[in-house]
Amino acid sequence: MVGRGGSLYVSAQQARTQSAAGLSIEGTLFRSSTAGSGGGGAVFVNVSSGGCAAVDATAQACLSVTLRNTSFLNCSAALGGDGGGLAATLSGPSLALTACRFEGCSAERGRGGGAFVESTGITSVSDTQFVSNAAGVDPLSGGGGGGGLAWTFAAAGVGQLAAPGLELSNCLFFNNSVGSGSQGAAGQSVGGGGGLLAGPAAGLSASVAVSLSRFKGNFAPAGGGASVMAISTATVLNCSFDSNQATSTGGGLLLQGVQQAWLEHVGFTSNAAAVGGGLCVSTGASQQQTSTARSLLSSAPGNAIALVLADFFLNNNTAYKVSGPASPTLLYAGYGGGIFLSLSVAAALIRGSFQGNSASEFGPGVATLQDMGSCSRGDQQLGRSNPSPSAMVELINAAGELVTEHPTAGAYLSFGASGGFGALQSTPAVVAPLFLGYAFWEVALFRGWVGSGYRLNVTVRFTDTTAAEMEITPLSLEVELMPCPLGSSIQAGPAARPDQTSCQPCRALQFSLWVDPRNSSSNAVESFSNATLAAILEKGVCHPCPSDAYCPGGAVVVPLAGFWQSAANSTLMQRCFIREACTPSPLSQPVNLSPIGSPASSASGASASAAADVPSAPLVACQQAWYASQPPGARVLASLNASGSGEACLLWGEGSANYSSVVLYTEQQCAPSYSGRLCATCQPGSYLTTVFACKGCSTQGATVVLGIVALLATTALILFTAWIIYNNDYMRAETGPVSASDKLLVLITHMQYLIIIARLNLSWPDVITRMASALSALTGIPSLTFPVTCLLSGLDSAGQARAQYAWSFLSPIIATLLAMVLWSLRYAFYNQSLLRRGARSKDVEEKRRRWATNTLASLQPCDSGAISAIPSKAGSTTAAPVLSRGSEDSGVKQPSAQQPLAASPSLQPQQSESTAHKPAAATKVPSTRLEGKPSVQTSRLSGLSASLRKSTRVFTTVEPSAAIVHLDQGVSLPRQLVLLLLVAITILYPGLAHASLSSFACRRLDTGAGPYPETQQATWRYGYWLSDMNQECYLGVHRSFYAPLGAVCVFVFCIAPPLGILVLVLRRRKKLGQPKTRAVYGFLYHRYREDFYFFESVKQLQVLMLVLVNVFANAIFQYQQALLLLCVLLCIGVVNMSCRALRAKLLVLLEYLSLMVLALSITLGLFFVGGGAGSEMGLDSQAAEDAVAVIILVLNSSLLVALALVIAWPALVRLWRPAQKPRDPTPSTQGQQQGEDDAEAQQDPPPLQGTQSGQSNAALSGTAESPTAAGALGKKSEQPGSGDPRDPQGAEAGLNPQVSIHVTQVSGVP
C-alpha cells in the first residue's frame, strides 16, 4: 500500500453483520499533494462492503463515500498511479461527488488525471468541475486515459447482481488532456477520453448517464471530449461538446462497443478528429454487422449497436486526413466531419441540424460503412426506443369485447372532407395488419385546414378467401382538426392543394409563440381563403433562439444563468446586476418531466462563461409542464385543484393566491433571498448591498452596535480633520514644510475614490468589499456598513428602499450635528476655560504673541513709514514678546545657524528712503501695512516684527493649541460651526452626492425589440428605480416623493458645495492674504498656487464625475463600467498634472501615487469580470483570483499606511528629539532664566516714539531673542563688527542678539 493517497488514505472492510457508517469529506481543499505508484495524488479510498454488492449496491445497509464542496488543486500521482487527485476502489459502496473541483491534477502514466473511480456500485457526480487535468499513457501497458475523470467497474467476484453505473449531472470538463496513445486490437484506441473515460465494463449491465454537462477544449488520442467503451447502455441528454480534439477517432464523443446509446438535445461544435470529427460510433472486436435502422426500431439483435440521436446539431466539425501507420481505424481518416458510423451500428437520426461541417475524404455531415438503402423516412420520424403508436384500432364484437381470434385481416385508414379537403400520411402507408384484434399506425399525419367537417374512416378487410363473406361494420368518425399548438409552425400543402396545411413543432435552437387564430368549430371548407392562409403563413414560423437564451424546442424560452426575463414568454433577456442573483433554486418536488435543455447555442450569439451555458432545469421543466396541455396550463391547474396541495410552478399569477406552495415563474428565476424585477430586490430578512447582492441580516443588537460604531467613526474623522486643519499655521512661510492637514486631505480623497471604485459591480472578492466597508464607515456612506433595513422586520422592497434612502441622508447629517455639538462643548469648556485660568500666565501670553508674530510677518509692507530696530541693553525691563532661542519653556523650535532660513512669500519689504545708520542707534527698515482688522491680541502686538529689512527671514512655529486659542478668541462659535460644516462637507460629499443622484438612477428593461414584443412585461419607458426595481421611475410614489426630494438634494448636496466654495473664495480673492481670512478659510486654498485659489471647487467636481459614473453606469456591461470610470480617473490625473495647481511638490507626488494606485486597482478588477473556469474572460482558478485580490489589497493598504506615516512623521520627530536632548546639569541656571522670563512677561512695554512726515503714531515695541533675526539685521545695518549670524566670529565680535523692534509708523490700523 506504499505510495497511495498523498494526503489521505482510507481503507475499510464491512462485514455482513456490521452496520453501515460510510465516509464523508466536506469543505476540504487538497493542494499540491503527490502519491506514488499506488495512485490517489491527494486521497485514496479502498472500501469493501461484505455481501452488499451481491444484493443491491444502493441499499441503505451499504457503506457510502461522499465528497462535497471539496477541491483538488495541483495534485499528482506518479509512477503509473491512477487518480491525480482522487483514487477510489469501491466494492459495494456507492460514491457521490457533489460541488467538487479538480484543477491542475495529473496522473503521469495512469488513468484519471483528476479522479479515478473503480466501483461495483453507483457513482454519482454532480455540479463538479474538471479543469486543466492531465492523464498519461503507459508506454509498456498502453493503459491510461480520462484526463478529467476515469471510471470503470471493479471485479466483485461471484454473486455480482447489481449493475455498476456512472451518473453525471451539471458537470464541466474543460481543458483536460491525455498523452499520446496507441492503437489496440481491432482498431480500439487506448489513451482515450480527454475529459471523461467511462468503461470498460464488458459482461455486465453497466450504464452511463450524462446530462446537463459541457465538454470544452479537451484533447485525447481518441474521444477528445469523452470516451465511453464497452458499456451496456449510454445516455447523453442536454450536453454540449465544443472545441475538443482527438488524433484518431471521435473529436467530441467516442462510443465504442456500447450496446445501446440514446443521445438527445446534444450539440457538437468545432470539434476535430481524423475519423468522426463530432461523433464516432464503432463496434467492439466481437460484434458483427447486423441490420439497419429498421431493425433498431423494431427488434434489433442484442449484438448490434443501437444508436438514437434526436434533437441535435453539428456545426463546424472537421474530419482530417492524417499520415501514420496503417491501422483499422485510421483507414478511414478524413471520414465523417459530423458523424462516423462503423459497421453493425443501427442508427436513427431524428430532427438534426448540420451546418459548416467538413471532411477531407468523405461525408462532411455523416459517413457510414453500412448500406443505407433500406432506410425510409419512417425510420427518421419514429420517436423514442419504445414509441407509442400515433393511431390504434381494436376489433370488438357486438358485446364490446375484444376479438383476439380472427382470420388474417388488415385495417385501412382514410381521412377527408368534401371537396377534396384533407389528406392523410401514415406508416404503414396502405394497410396495417390486424393481430390479436389490434392494428397500429406508427405515424399518422393528418393534413388539412383547421375546422370541422372531416371524417375518419376505418375498414377491415380479410385476406383469407374463406372469410371473405364475413362483414365488419366500418368505423366512421366525425373529427375536427385542432389549431396548431403553441410552439409550432405551419407548413403549407402542395401547390395544387394549399389548404392541406400541417403543424410542425419547432426544433431545438428554435421557438415559436405564435397562436393559431383558426377556430376548430368552424367548417373547414367554408372558412378557408387564400388571404387567410397567406397571413397565417407569414406569422406561423419558428424563430431563432434569442441571445442569452436557451431554446430546447417548441415554445420554451428560458434565460441563461445570469439573465432574467420579465415573463415566461418574453423574448428579450436582461442581464442581471450579479450572476448569483439570477440562479434559480430547484423545486423540492420537481415537475415529472424528462429533462430537456441544452447548453447555450452558438447560434444564439451568447458569449457567457462556461457555467452560464448550462441552462436552468427548473425553468425548463416549469415551462414544459405548462405547455404540455391544450390549452396551456390546463393539466397543471387540474392537478392542483385535484390534490389541493403540492408544489407546482405557474407561469402566470392568476389563482396563485389560493395555493400556499405555488411558485410563480418570475420568482423561480431568482436565487433564495432575491426577488423582483431583475432579481434586484431582497426578501424580508435580507438587505440589499450597493452591488445589488442580498445579504442575510444579523441580530438587531449587532446591527445597532454596528450603526453606532459607524456613526462615531464618521464623527471622529470630521473632528480630527477640523482639529488638524485649524491647528495648522496658515501664517507661516508657504514654501515651508507641507502641513499635516494638506496631507490628510490627500488621504481622505484616496479613501473616497477607493470606495467609489469598490462600488463598481465587478464581482470583487470579499476581502476588497470588506476593506471598502471599513473605509466607508469613516466617510459617511452607511449603505456599505450599516443595514438599517435589518432593524425593521417584514419590510417589502418598497419599505426597504424607503428606509435605506432616508438613512443615507440621516447618517451623515447626524454625524455632522454630533460633531458640531462636541465642538461646541470644546469651545465652552476647553480653550475658553484655559484662557480664563491662565490669562496672565507666561505660557498663554507666549502663545498669543507667537500667533501675532506670524500674523504680522505675513502682511504686505506699506510705502512709507519705518520700523526701528534698536539693540536692547542688558537688564532691560522692556516687556515684549520674546522669541526664545530654543528654551524648553517657549516651545519654539529654533532653526540651526548653519541652515538658510526661508522667507515668507507674503513678506515683501521695500527699501526705506533713509539708509543712514549710527552705532548703537536705531536701524530703520521698511514699515508694514496691516490690511484688514486684526484681532484684540493682534492690536496689542501689531508692530511686533513687521519692520524687517528686505533680506530679513522669519521662521517661527506655532504650537497647535495656540492656533485654536486664537481661533476661539477671534471667531465666534456660530462661525466656527459653519467652518466645521465646510470640513464635514469635504469628507461626506461623495456619500451625499451618491444618495442624491440615486434618486434618479433608473434602468430600462424591455425595449420591445425582437419577435413578439407584446409578451414583454417590463416596458416602462422611463425604466425602473435602482433602489427598488419594483417601482417605476417617475410614476406613483417616485414621482410624488422621491423625484422632488431628489431634485432638492442634488442642488443642496451636489451643486451647492462646489458652487458655494467657489463663490466664497471669489468674494474674498482680494483678501486671501489677510490674517483673518487665512486663519478661517485658509484650508480651502492654502495648498494651491496663488492663481488656482478656486481649485477646491474643481476637486469636488472631479469627485462628482466619479459618482455620476458609479450611479448611472449600471445599465451597461460590467467591464464597460470599469473602463468608463478608469477614463474619468485618467482625465482627472491629466487635469491635475496639466494645471499643477498644488503648491508643494510632495502633494503633487502623493496625489499622483494615489491616482496610479486607483487606476491599477480598476485595471486589476477587470480580471473578476465574467470569471469562471472555461470562460474567455476572467480568471480560471481561485488561486489566481486570490492573488489579484491580494495585490489590490496590498497596493491600497500600503498607500494608506504610507500617507498616514507622512502625516504623523513630524509629530513623531518632535516626540523623539526632546528625548535625545541632554539635561542641563545646572538646575539653578534654568531657574534663574525662568525667573527672568517671568519678570519680563509681567512688565508693560515702555512707549517708543518715532516721527516721519510730521506725524506721530502710537508704537508697539518688543524684543527678539533670536540670533537669526539679530544676525540678519546686523548684516544689513553695516555696523562695525556686524556679520553673518551663522558665523560664530560675528557673534564673538560683540553683536548683541537681543534687539528692540520699534514701529515708528503703522498705517491702516483702525
Give an overview in words.
- The longest helix is centred in the middle third of the chain and has 41 residues, at 797-837.
- The strands form 18 sheets. The protein has a 16-stranded parallel β-sheet that branches. It has an 11-stranded parallel β-sheet with strand order 1-5-9-13-17-21-25-28-31-34-37, with no helix packed on it. A 5-stranded parallel β-sheet has the order 4-8-12-16-20, with no helix packed on it.
- The C terminus is likely disordered.
- By secondary structure, the chain is of the alpha/beta class.
- Helix content is 29%, strand content 22%.
- It contains 24 helices and 67 strands.
What's a quick, concise take on this entry?
This protein is of the alpha/beta class and 1310 residues long. It has a 16-stranded parallel beta sheet that branches. Keywords: Membrane, Transmembrane, Transmembrane helix.
Fold blueprint:
Elements: E1 8-14, E2 23-26, E3 29-31, E4 34-35, E5 43-49, E6 64-68, E7 71-73, E8 76-77, E9 86-91, E10 94-98, E11 101-103, E12 106-107, E13 115-119, E14 122-126, E15 129-131, E16 134-135, E17 149-153, E18 165-169, E19 172-174, E20 177-178, E21 196-198, E22 207-211, E23 214-216, E24 219-220, E25 226-229, E26 233-242, E27 245-246, E28 253-256, E29 260-269, E30 272-273, E31 279-282, H1 293-297, E32 305-315, E33 318-319, E34 339-341, E35 345-355, E36 358-359, E37 366-368, H2 377-381, E38 391-394, E39 409-416, E40 423-427, E41 431-434, E42 438-441, E43 443-447, E44 451-462, E45 475-481, E46 488-491, E47 502-505, E48 510-511, H3 524-527, H4 530-539, E49 543-544, E50 549-553, E51 556-559, E52 563-564, E53 574-575, H5 617-627, H6 634-643, E54 648-650, E55 662-664, H7 665-668, E56 674-675, E57 681-682, E58 686-688, E59 694-696, H8 700-726, H9 740-758, H10 766-779, H11 797-837, H12 842-857, E60 861-871, E61 923-928, H13 936-940, H14 960-970, H15 973-997, E62 1002-1003, E63 1024-1025, H16 1037-1067, H17 1075-1085, ...
Parallel strand pairs: 1-5, 2-6, 3-7, 4-8, 5-9, 6-10, 7-11, 8-12, 9-13, 10-14, 11-15, 12-16, 13-17, 14-18, 15-19, 16-20, 17-21, 18-22, 19-23, 21-25, 22-26, 23-26, 24-27, 25-28, 26-29, 28-31, 29-32, 30-33, 31-34, 32-35, 33-36, 34-37, 54-55
Antiparallel strand pairs: 38-42, 39-41, 39-44, 40-43, 44-45, 46-47, 48-49, 50-51, 52-53, 56-57, 58-59, 60-61, 60-67, 62-63, 64-65, 66-67
InterPro entries: Pectin_lyase_fold/virulence, WDR48
GO molecular function: ubiquitin binding
Protein name: TRP C-terminal domain-containing protein
